[in-house]
From TrEMBL:
It comes from Trifolium subterraneum. InterPro entries: Ribosomal_uL3, Ribosomal_uL3_bac/org-type, Ribosomal_uL3_CS, Transl_B-barrel_sf. Gene3D superfamilies: 3.30.160.810, Translation factors. One of its GO terms (cellular component) is ribonucleoprotein complex. Belongs to the universal ribosomal protein uL3 family. This is Large ribosomal subunit protein uL3c.
Amino acid sequence: MAFSSVSSFSLSIPSSRSNSLSFSTSISKNPSSSPQFLKLPQQQQQHDGRTRTKRRGMVVMMSVEAGVGVMATKLGMMSFFQPNGEVVPVTVVGFKEGNIVTQIKTDATDGYNAVQVGYRRVRDRKLTKPEMGHLEKAGAIPMRHLQEFRLQSVDGFEVNQRLVFDELFNEGDLVDVSGTTIGKGFQGGIKRYNFKRGPMSHGSKSHRQLGSIGAGTTPGRVYKGKKMPGRMGGTNRKTRKLKIVKIDKDLNVIMIKGALPGKPGNLLRIAPAKIVGKNIPKN
């Protein structure tokens, strides 16, 4: 395959074949030959605490956590009375056996820094052989859930290290909590997006219907992202900057102010809150 150049500027790349690939500002190819493609190398840059990966003109932003976190189980909600008599609605979060470091990823081995944490011990037959092999390599117990915490540095972490919540967080700290919301099934626009209903009188023919979803001939279609009836809930959501009200070491539970995603028994991911100027650079 040969390329001819019109401009004086050209770049030649040796190939395993007898000929070479030549690129220039003006490229012409032989129509009888089949097209060939050159895979561009990936480049990674650090920008604002995020890893930016360039791949064929596409930029992928990978978020970096403010610090390592843990996984927990939602137990329910209750009212907590402060010493001054103030009543605070809190969510009680418990911990099952786990929160053990199962793998440490570095720039040299994986292209980024991260700590993989396992949670919730299960029986051996509940896991596949590849999963068991991965955990046995780290010397860890069989665990159901594995999640990564992408960090700027992984210094100080060791494989099979147990993460204790009260050593990572204190009362009064702000955390970001992620979880799967309660599934509501297929719902209409009123329940899903808080739309207003029409008149409920006898003559009305639009009580809870959605109404118009667009114009006529122009544009002749429904715009993408139009709020319409559909499946509601059952998605991953993050609630940011929630305050830790109480840490009970005896009961092995914590109390977080406000509501958390999901129902009792749901898996939660707790990480330090990202605060610009404190643990996230201002620039």
